[in-house]
Amino acid sequence: MFSTAGHHLLVLAYGRAPASQVTPxxxxxxxxxALGGRLVAHRPIQVAAAARPAKA
Length: 56
What we know:
The protein contains two helices and no strands. Helices cover about 70% and strands about 0% of the residues.
């Protein structure tokens, strides 16, 4: 629910400010989503599977 509201506000910000000023907040949205999942749902923060080498 909070993620949806935050994303909606970010979309509104793109309409009011240049993309170069708003884009850094997109990265923070991902960071805060991971931290929120850790704090609220007690889930560990995991590195993306794409960043790990494939097992043979």
